Amino acid sequence: MNEIMILSIHFVMLGISLAIPIGPIKLEMIKYGLFGGFWPSWFVGIGAVCADLLFMSLIFLGLTSFLHHEWITILMLIIGIIMLSYLGISTIRNSGSTLSLLIDDKINLKKPFWTGFVIALMNPYNFIFWFGIYGGSLQSIPSTTNEMTRIALSLCIIAGIVLWNLNVAFTVHFFRFLINEITIRWLARFAGIGLIGFSSFLAYKLFSILS
């Protein structure tokens, strides 16, 4: 097995490792999956992947140093706090509504897509990964490797993220038919509480920076 093949597997596993932890994106995927099934959940993941591709493109364009400015981090934290707080509160509030669950065609797929995109774009942990861990991982690629191969290896990270998101969307889709609406509503509430929890943590990080 040659070096490029080994690096490809390494980058796919890196993408899966990034996608596995339960965070705002996964909570939204679970929430949309419980309420709408596979496609809404999957579109949250697609939106998040599009944000990842944007981060990757910025690195290749050489904008890493610009994006490390403190004011950009502060701006991302503020937007992330507002976004996650809104999603958490609205999720908890809507979980007790009389909206019929388990009906896929009632959800506009544009909403979950943009939700996933904005959360991933404003998530400081995504920022840290792409401009920290990913930037370091690029150094493991031999300097003699051409640019197209470097891009292909980078896309292996995206492939890993996509594979895990696909797994989450499928799992939630098939699992939701095994539980009743009351359980789904409570799971949605827990997802909302989780989003507010992440928002509180970002608020703490913002306070630490400003102080």
Topology record:
Layout: H1 3-19, H2 24-36, H3 38-60, H4 64-67, H5 70-94, H6 110-122, H7 124-138, H8 147-175, H9 181-210
Helix pairs in contact: 1-8, 2-3, 2-6, 2-8, 2-9, 3-6, 3-7, 3-8, 5-6, 5-9
What can you see in these coordinates?
The chain has helices spanning 3-19, 24-36, 38-60, 64-67, 70-94, 110-122, 124-138, 147-175, 181-210. It is mainly α and 211 residues long. Helix 2 runs antiparallel to helix 6. The chain starts with a helix and ends with a helix.
Main attributes of the structure:
211 residues, single chain, mainly alpha
Shape, principal axes of CA atoms: globular
Order of helices and strands: HHHHHHHHH
Indicate the proportion of strand residues.
under 5%
Helix content: over 70%
Spans of at least 5 consecutive residues with low confidence:
98-105
Structural class: mainly alpha
Q: Count of helices?
A: 9
Per DSSP E runs of 2 or more residues, the count of β-strands stands at: 0
Biggest sheet, in brief?
none
Distance between the termini: 51 Å
Rg measurement, Å: 18 Å
Task: Give a quick precis of the structure.
The protein is an all-alpha fold and 211 residues long. It has helices spanning 3-19, 24-36, 38-60, 64-67, 70-94, 110-122, 124-138, 147-175, 181-210.
